Amino acid sequence: MDFKNKVVIITGAAQGIGKHMAETFRNHNAKVYDIDIQPGCFVQGDISDTAVIDKFVKEIINENHSIDFIINNALPIMKGIHTCSIEEFNYALQVGVSAPFYLIQQLIPYLNNNASIVNISSTRAHMSQPETESYAAAKGGISALTHALAISLRDKARVNAILPGWIDTSGTEFTGANSKQHPAGRVGVPGDITQMVLYLCSEHASFITGQEIVIDGGMSKQMIYHNDQGWLFNEY
């Protein structure tokens, strides 16, 4: 795929999946404008603050009159019902749902024909571990926002969500149960997500919009019963 001179916006790109996406788009000759609360991106700032998004958008538009792709990848905090304050919960929603909404809203006038928006949700939008309410709510919100935007922006852009499962960003070598619990036989890596992002931004995906695409090695399709296939449930 050649994305020469395509303008790509990526949030949460200082590390992990976001960084891998940014580097890959650059390798495909795209112009990448990224932002993260950590240093290392085009703009450093907290996207929960609309003033930060305004500055980010202004700097991009000063250099480009049109936008091709928006990747909403910034990571909400993960805290649970017993420890998460309402302020922290609202912050997770601001980062995970409100910021993508506001960023897209500000960029609508600049979207090119055949623009593509990809929201990075999570399988945790549909399944959970204990004490993950802030993260699950934010990811559920971005999944719902995806299909709503796909309808509202039907004449401007395709809008899809990717729902990663367990994606290791540390380079750890996993063996045994960690790998075998995935029907695909391994833990995911950032490239598994990046390749789908590239596809959804390409002309090959011109008939795909409003979709949630799960990339989890089949993990969420695995039926689990206590004392079956070696699985044991320990009450917490």
Offer a few descriptive terms.
single chain; about 240 residues; alpha/beta; seven-stranded parallel sheet; about 35% helix; about 15% strand; globular
Provide a descriptive summary of the structure in words:
The chain has 236 residues and is an alpha/beta fold. Helix content is 36%, strand content 17%. The protein is built from 6 helices and 7 strands. The chain has helices at residues 16-27, 50-63, 86-107, 133-152, 177-180, 190-201; strands at residues 7-11, 31-36, 43-44, 67-72, 111-120, 157-164, 212-215. It has a 7-stranded parallel beta sheet, with helices on both faces. α2 runs parallel beside α3. The longest helix is centred in the middle third of the chain and has 22 residues, at 86-107. The termini are far apart. The model has no long low-confidence stretch (mean pLDDT 96).
